Amino acid sequence: MKTLDRWGCAATVAFVLLWPSGAWAEAEKPAAPPPNVSLTQCGMCHETQINAFKTTPHGTLAQSCTACHGDGTEHVKGSIEKGVPGPITSFKNRKAEEVNAACLSCHDKGRQANWHGGLHDRRDVSCTSCHSVHSFHSARAQLKTTNPDDTCFTCHTNIRNKSMRVSHHPVREGLMSCASCHDPHDGTKPKMVKGESISETCLTCHTEKRGPHLWEHAPVRENCATCHDPHGSNHEKLLVAKQPYLCQRCHLNTRHPGTLYDLRNTLGGTSPSNRAVEHACKNCHQNVHGGNAPSGPYLGR
Amino acid sequence: MRRLWLPLTIVALSATPGASQDEAPADTTFTVRRIEFGVQGPETDTSSSRFREYRAIPSGFVLDRVHFAGNDGFRYDVRVDRALQADARYTARLKPGPFQVDFDFQKIPHRFGNDGRTLHEERPRGVFVISDTLQRANQSALEAQRALSPAGVNFTFLQQLVNPTIDAASRIDLALMRDRGRLELGWKPKDKDVELKMSYFQERRYGNRAAGTSFGFSNVVESAEPIEYRTHDLATAGEWRTSWGLVRGGVRYNWFQNAYLSQSFDNPFRVTDSNDASAYTAPGSGSINGAATGVFSLPAENQAVTGNLGFVVKLPSKTRLSADASLGHWTQDSPFLPFTSNTSIRLPDGRAATDLASLPARSLDAKVNVSSLSLNLTSKPAKHLFLTARYRRYDFDNKTPRIEFHEGYTRFDAVWEDIPRVSVPYGYTTGRAQASASYDLGRATLEAGYRYDTDDRTFREVEQTTTGTLFGAVLLRPTTWIVLRASAERAARDFDGEYHYAEAEEASFLEPEAPTQLPELRRYDLAKKDTDRLSARLQMTPGGNTTISLGYSKAKDDYKESPFGLASGEVEGLSADVDYTPSERWSVFAFAGRDTFDSLQRARQSGATPSTREIDNWTSNVTDKVDTFGGGFNVVVVKNKLDVKVNGSYQKVDGTNALDSPPGGTPDVAVAIPEFDDTKILTAGGELSYRVSKAVRLSFGGWLEDYELRDSATSNIATYLPGSIFLAANDGDYRAHVLYARLAYVW
User: Fold this and answer.
1) Of B116, B188, B316, B709, which sits most exposed with the smallest number of CB within 10 A?
2) Is the ipTM of this complex over 0.90?
3) Among B67, B115, B151, which Cα is nearest to B726's?
4) Using CB atoms, which residue from B210, B565, B712 is nearest to A250?
C-alpha cells in the first residue's frame, strides 16, 4: 500500500503540474494577439451581421472580424470622431483571386486544397460567389441561398431546368443536393464529382450495380452517363433517350433489335408491341446493368 | 500521508477546467431553440404515385422542424426535419473540444406507381405464385385451342382468357424506401495541423419495383422485384498540414448485401414444364410450351475496398503541386442460379439443366483492381499569368475469370440453346492530360488550353480512342457590376485502324458464327466524333439591388463517320433570370428558359441476316423542346409583423420522334410519334406569415400542383397487351393542392 501511496502522490502532483498542458490536453501554441476591435464593438454598428456571424465557427476565432477585415482601429475611429467610417478591408468589388486568398489562408485544407486550377477557380468564381460569412441563409455551409441548390442554379440554369423534369433525383424535394455528387471546390475529378470517376460516384448510392457481373453490359461498365442524365430527363429512369431508340443506337442486330417501332406499335396503334411500349427492351432484358445468371447472356435472366 | 493523495487528487480534478476546451468568449455565446409544427390537408384527384414520388406530405398534424443549437459548453446543432414522416431527416453535430461528432439519419421514399394489378401473390418474399387452378385452366384452354387451330392462339383469344382474371386481380403499389444513417467522428484539435476522421454508413433499401420478368417474346409477365438491400461503408481518413503543404490519406471498405439473390415468378399459361424449339415465342401459333415458373437473378452481393494517399506541395511563385492516388479492389462471389427452373430441359449430354452440378462453375469469383492517379500543377510565374497542368489516369483492370458454357444455356426458361458462350470481363483505362494558360488584362481575363484524352478498352470494337480538345474562355469585367463569362471548345475523337464489330460480338461466343450486328453501325460511346461547345453568361447587378443574368449554351456532337447509330446530338439553351430587391420590404424574382434537345440516329432493319439494302433504312429524329418559367415575390406588409410570399413555376416539354424510311423496303412506312414523353408541370403556392410575438409566428399557406404526361408508349397503358401482362401501376396525371397552418415557436 505504501507503494500505491507513493505512486498516487506522484501522479497527483504530476496531474496538477501538467494540466492544462497535460498529454491529453491540447498543446499550447502562442496565443494570438487580441483583436484591436472586438466583436462587441463591431456589433454596435453591424448588429445584423454580428448576430449571424457569432453563430458560426468564424465567430469563435480569436481575431473574429479583424481576421479577415484587418485592423479596424481607423474604421471605428472615423465613425466615432467624424461620423464617417474610416477605411477597412472590404471584399465588395474585389477580384476573385483576392477574396479567395483571404478565405484560403485558413481553408486551404481538405477538398478546398484542390481548389486551385479547377474550373471554378479558372472562371473567376470567388468563395463569396456562393458563401457568405455573415449574411448566409442555408442551414449548412453558410451559403447565400436558403436552398443550397439555388446557389448552384444561379449560374447553372440549364441544370435547374433539368432538375424540374419528370424523371429526376430528389434534389428539388430537398432529399439530395448538388453536393451529394459534386464537390464544387475540388477541380481534380471529372465534372467535379466526389468519386474517382462518374460511375464510382453513381455507385455510392446504387451499389447493387457495382458487380462485377457474369454477363456485363460494356457501356454500363465504363460510364453510367452513356445512357443516363443524372440531372433530369423526360424519359423514364433518367435515360438520355427513350427506349427502344436508345438501345438501337448500339444494337441493330438482325431481327427485332434493328426493327423499326413507330406509332403503329405504340398504345392505341394498330399493332402495339411489347418492344415499344411501357419499358420496351427492358420488358425482357431486365438486367440491363449486368446479370449473374448463367442463362442470362442477353441480360434477360 | 496515507491516502492523502486521494483527497488531493479530488481537489485537483475539481479545480481543473472542464473537458470543453472550446468554451466561447462571452460575447459570442448563442442558443437557438426553434420548433415548427402545424396541420395540413393534401388533396389529389388521382391515385398517381407521382405527387408523392419522393415526398410524404401526410394529412393532419405535422412536426415540420425542430432546431436546437448553441455553444454554451460545447458547440452543438441538432435538427429534425419532417419528424416521423416517410421523408424525415435527423441530424446532429456536436463539437466537444477537439472532437466532432456528426450524425445523420434520413429516409428517402421512391414511389414508382400505385394500384398496379398483378396475377401474382408474393408467397414467401421473392416467390411470385399464381394459383395452380388458374394456371391449369389457362394451359388446358391453350391446349384445346391449339388442337383445334394453332392460328387461333392469338391476342384476341388470349385476351378473353386473361382479362377476367386481371379484372379481379389484387392491387399492388410499387415503392421503395431508403433508410440511410451515417455516424462520423472527427478529431481536429485547435492549433494542431492534423485531422482524423472515422465514419460508418449504412443504408437499408426495401420495397419493390417493376421488373420485366419474361417467358419470351410473347409472354412478358411484369412483376414486382423484391428489394431488401443493405449497403455498409466504413471509412477512415486523415490529413496532416505543414508549412509546405499537406499529406492526406484514407481507407474505405464498402459492402453490399442482398437478402434476395433471385426471384421466381409463375407463368400464367403453364402449370407443367415443357419445351420445344419455339417455346420462347409462346403462347402463340408457334408454341404453347414453356416453363411453369421462371427464375431471375437479382443483384449479386459485392464488396469494394479502396485506399488513397495524396499530398499538396506549395512552391515559390504561387506554384502548387498536388498528387492523389487511389487503389481499389472489387469482388463479387454470389452463388449462381441453375441454368433454368424448367424441369423438362436437359443439356445435350442429358444432364438436368435445373441441377447446379450441371454448371461449369458455382460462382464467378469476380475481381477488379481499380486505380487512379491525379497530378495537378498550378503556377503564377508572373503577375498576370496563371498556368495549370493536369494529368489523370483511371484504370479498371478486370481480373474476373472467364466462365465458359460449352453446352450452351437456356432461353427464357423455355428451350435449351446449343450455343456455347463465354463471359466477357470488360475493362478500360482512361487518361487525360491538360494544360492551360490564362492572362489577366485587368478588365478581361483570357484563357486558352488543350486537353488530350485516351480511352483504352478490352473486348470492344476499338482498342483505343483519343480525343483532342482545344478550349478557350474569356472573362470580361467592364464595370464592377457587369461580368461576362464565355467559353468555347472544339474536340475531335478518333481511333486508328478498323472498327472490329465482328470481333467484339464474337468475344462472348466460344464458336462464333456470322455476326448479326449491322457492320456499318458505330457505337456512339467510342465512335469518331466532333464536338463543339459554347457557353456564355452575362451577369449584371445595377444599383446593387438588381441582378440580371442571361445565359446561352450550345453543345453539338457530330458522329460524322457513323453510317449507322447515333449520327448527331445537339443541345441548345437560353435562360434569363431577374432578381429585384429594392428594399427590405419587398423583392421579386423571375426566370425563364428554353432548352432544345435534338438527336438523329440512323438504322437499318434486317431479317435473318444483316440487310444490305438502303430501302431497309430508317431514321429517328427526336426533338425535345423545353420551356421553363418561374417567379415569385416576397412582401413585408407590416415590418416585423406580416409577410407574404408567392412563388410558382411551370415547365412544358414537347417531345416528338420524327421517323422516316424510304418506301419499298422493310419497313415500308414509318409513322412519326407526336406524343413522346410530353409533360407539363405547374406548381404555384403562397404563404401569409404573421408574427404574433417575438417568440411565435403563425403561417397559413398552400400550394397546388398540376402534372400531365402524354406519351404514346406509356400513358393509360392497359394491363394486357399483345405479348404482355403489365402491372399498369399509376404514375400519371394528377392535380393536387395542399393547405396548411403552421406555428413556429422560438425561445
Assistant:
1) B316
2) yes
3) B115
4) B565
